[in-house]
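RECORD TYPE: protein structure
NAME: FAD-dependent oxidoreductase
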Amino acid sequence: MLEPAYQADVVVVGAGVAGLSAAHRLSSAGVTTMVLEAAHGVGGRMATEKVDGFRLDRVGQLLSTAYPELRQTPGLGGLVLRPFAPGVLLHGDGRHHRAGVQPGAGGARGALHAVRALASAPRPPSAPRTPRKPVAVPGRQVSVPRSRSGAPLGTAVDQARLGAALTRLAGTPAERLLARPELPAGEALAARGLPARTIDGFLRPLLAALLCDPDLTTSSRCADLALRAFASGRLCLPEGGAEALPELLASTLPPGTVRTGVRVTSVSTTAVTTAEHGEIRCRAVLVATDARAAAELLPGLRVPEFHPVTVVHHTTDEPPETGASLLLDADLGGPVAHTAVVSRVDPSRAPAGRALVSSTVLGRPPGDADTAVRMHLARLYGVSTARWETLAVHHTAEAVPAMRPPHDLRRPVRLLAGLYVCGDHRDTSTVQGALHSGHRASAAILADLGAGRPLHTADPVPTVPRAA
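PREDICTED:
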């Protein structure tokens, strides 16, 4: 049990990745830190359900190896990232097309990887096969199908222009991207001079997957940052499920730092009040909850709109032959925004002999979500899904804070001396944004309290086992 009168230098409210990353930096600076979490586990939306040997993420957020905070946050040194196959796999015009980036090709940090027709749904007997011809791509020679009307990547010239644009984007400093004029992402794409087929067949479904925004109303600056990360890194998943990241952060904090099952009812600059243990006095409070919970503790804090996300998990003993690829629908012909045989990416997510297929629906899900998703997956993968077993359907109404323009990517984390706030609603609505907001908040706290020396000399926090 917590001692109600125990004092800490900083109390962090919320054990999501933003609060846990801030707690790491504070503890490393000698600041006595206590993290209070109302739920019985850490991680917030980065939760993973375990069912019959499967690990099922509730919100299937995609990470990137290009996220600097994954490398710079204390406590994440042991994080194992499992990358998808380079680029993405597009389903369009009844076929599969590989498109994406390959760091280092031709000496550029990011270059067009390959645009190659893969085995897919068979063509109707009357449809003639399209001859193939070589196309020059920065760094090497590849073969691609001769473009047809409706092909998701356009002509060979269009593909080369796309490769050059991604290469330039990978090498552009983030500060320059943030200085660009701000528009909704969909409008900005149309103004960039790329062909409509390339935008609609590749960039639109890709950005929808990266931003969880099917209508591309997100700020073009945030969209540019997402494309830059895609062009300079690899999409990936944490080994063991999304919960692996917050669990690692929590387990590497000093013993007794994180307290689960403790609900904070009010905050001030010098104390928090909990439902279970009364008042806990401190020198500063950091509210690191989701945006709505933060606004309940901090009246006047703006609550953004949200993008809802539904993740549907299936298992089969006959997985489709798409390897470890992220599959997007270039035709936007169904509810699924992106899907993958995630057990091919991270084998720890499924028991031996079974495959785990995880699919993400953006926006409001259809009435019978599983049936609609199965029909769409059968078309995307080119296989029957009738015998696939549904493991879970997770719907999160407030999964990702919307970032419509004008969007401040560095919203204040210091409300006043002694009271701070962080989370993905203060930066970009990504794991990178959550981690970075925790970094900014801890820096502001250390600046106000004085860093470099222990600030509190109370007895150590009693060790209490954290709920699983």
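COMMENT: The radius of gyration is 23 Å.
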